[in-house]
Fold each of these.
Amino acid sequence: MASGPYIFPNLAKLNFFSATNILGANVANFKMLLLTNVFAPNDATNEVLADLANELANGNGYVTGGVALTGVVLSQSGGTVKFTSAPAVWTAAGGSIPAWRYAYVYYNGTLNAKVNPLVGHFLGDNTPADIPATTNGNTLTVTQNAAGILAAT
């Protein structure tokens, strides 16, 4: 199953180019979290983490607030700027990590008075369908699109 492309909420796009300077922020503070199919993204108004609902429950290897992204890099080559990271990884322990539909990347912290501003989101399966539960002892790996989280030419 192929994941959908990253979608950038309108206000997140504004934050890329404003004094928020989200792409120039501390790379150690970017996180990815997972939401259920009950959530309906509103790309006209979602701007910060508090605008989201229906995150997976804490437990069984999933921690509320998501996992810190590693290998976060903002690079430029041949006129293309890319914002990338290593895959996000969770390991189910003590039970299954529940099924999920949306993955969100956000900045964990405050930038220009924006608390936990969103970067973007994507469907785990662009059908759209839920990504099935990850059973106890197995690893859930969410690999970024080959183009990165964000690529601009």
Amino acid sequence: MLIDSFAPEFDATEVHRIAINASRQTVYEALWTADLGGSPVIKLLMLMRSMPGLLAQRHQSLPRNQKVTLHTLTNSGFGLLAERASDEVVLGITGRFWRPTGNLSTFKRSDFDHPVPAGFARGVWNFSLGEGLDGQTILQTETRVICGDSASRRKFLAYWFVVRPFSGLIRLIMLRNVRRAAEKGR
């Protein structure tokens, strides 16, 4: 898998998958166009996560009801690391996720060719498609996090202990949204 070339070893991981009654091509197209954040639960969790940053920058307004797709994710801190059409998409992000505002770094693809700097963590997130039973497609998402040093690892793992259930819930809802879009578009 492409994700292995960016994070063969990691400090934390989370994997979710779902079976979809549609072809790989249909699922792949839905992955790019489905509203991944179109659920009240995801909107609430994303609002809660962005609240410290909004409060720190009082002049900034609350985000509008923008559709969350893979395209909008790549404009909000995540960057496209690799893509193999109808097979896998890999996104990346770097920051100090454990801080209230997330302290995200500006995405630079070349940074992912080097070790994670001390004091930072790097997230690598993929969506991969595989063959299921009876013409189904299996859509899987995996998140891997690599920390730059032991201090950032301790901070991240404490943060991850709290947010992991919510992060997992978001990913499960995203997978269901892709399934809904793909099965509707068959």
Amino acid sequence: MLNRKLRRSEALRFFEKLPPCLMGMEACGSAHYWVRELAALGHELRPIPSAYVKPSSSEVKTDAADAGAISESVT
């Protein structure tokens, strides 16, 4: 598991360098775009409905806490 901040403009270049892996992503307006882009690079993506992520998240709303909750939900 990686813990790294990325700007949107750096995302595709970063994921191109990774070997194919399983990724979870909270479903939102732009999630389907990212699923298509990352799947084209060979990654397996599982969009997770936010209703499944909520029970795993803590009270503190941060990107890191959300990422942990999504990681827990995808497994």
Amino acid sequence: MGIYIMKFHTDRHLLIKEVQEAFNRTYPFLKIEFSKKKGLGYSSPEENNGEGENARAAAKNLLWEEFGLSDNMKISELEILLQYQFGLPVQILRKSGNLWMETRLNRHWTLRQQNNHGEDIASGFV
């Protein structure tokens, strides 16, 4: 099953935003960051006349069904998949206190390991 919502330029921006949000709901101490090229903005669901629900469903399908997103996926694997899908440079960031830090040195860690480490750091700041 393909994701047809990406046919239109504005829908692509909405899908990117929804992928980021769906990912962050599952891994609250991790964040997907795409490099924003000139003119690349992310629209909100309100700006897309109800297309938000379609983008939300497409984002969920993309992450969990097509990419096979799981706790055991490595950071480097997800970055490669997302970069291939969207054609934009991407990196996964980990929350460290009030900051988002790069995970470059630990790209071989799994999503669960990175998220747990972010949670451990956050609990030290409480």
